[in-house]
Amino acid sequence: MEKYMAKAADAFLIGRPYGIRLDFKHKGFALFNYNMNELGNHLPGRLEMLPLEEFDVEDIPLCGERIVRKENITDIFFYDEKSNPYSDNRVDMKKLKAYNKYIYPLSLILNRNL
After folding, report:
1. Residue 1: is its pLDDT beyond 70?
2. Which residue, among 7, 80, 19, 8, has the nearest Cα to 45 in the 3D structure?
3. What gap in Å lies between CA 50 and CA 30, rounded to an integer?
């Protein structure tokens, strides 16, 4: 059972959005995982290197656990170490529900499964 939980936690960290970078100057966004890389990529990366997807970023809600603004760029983080639903080697449904409150409207706006 522990192997399944470890796999689920790893899949969450790699395959689900940890955050989104909004670039208001270039009218684009980049979703990134816990490793600061594109979703599904296990290797650590840098936000500055992520390719932007064109979108009217004004439509994206600016809500999350933590929001960092720098000039024309806003980084929104959907969870942190304390609010990670898989932080205690089990699924914390209350934390997962809080995370999904950010992801569900975003997936509707972007018309994408997140």
Report:
1. no
2. 19
3. 6
Strands 19-23 and 66-70 turn out to be unpaired
Question: What does the alpha-carbon distance between residue 79 and residue 77 come to, in Å, rounded to a whole number?
Answer: 6
Is the sign of the CA dihedral 96, 98, 103, 108 positive or negative?
Answer: positive
**Taking CA 54 as the corner, what is the angle to CA 18 and CA 33, rounded to the nearest 5 degrees?**
15
**CA angle, 62 then 65 then 66, to 5°:** 75
| Burial (CB count <10 Å: 0-12, 13-18, 19+), residue 38 | middle
pLDDT by residue (tens digit) across 39-97?
A: 999 999 999 999 999 999 999 999 999 999 999 999 999 999 999 999 887 899 999 99
Q: Which residues contact 81 (CB under 8 A, 6 or more apart)?
A: 87
Strand partners, 76: 20, 67
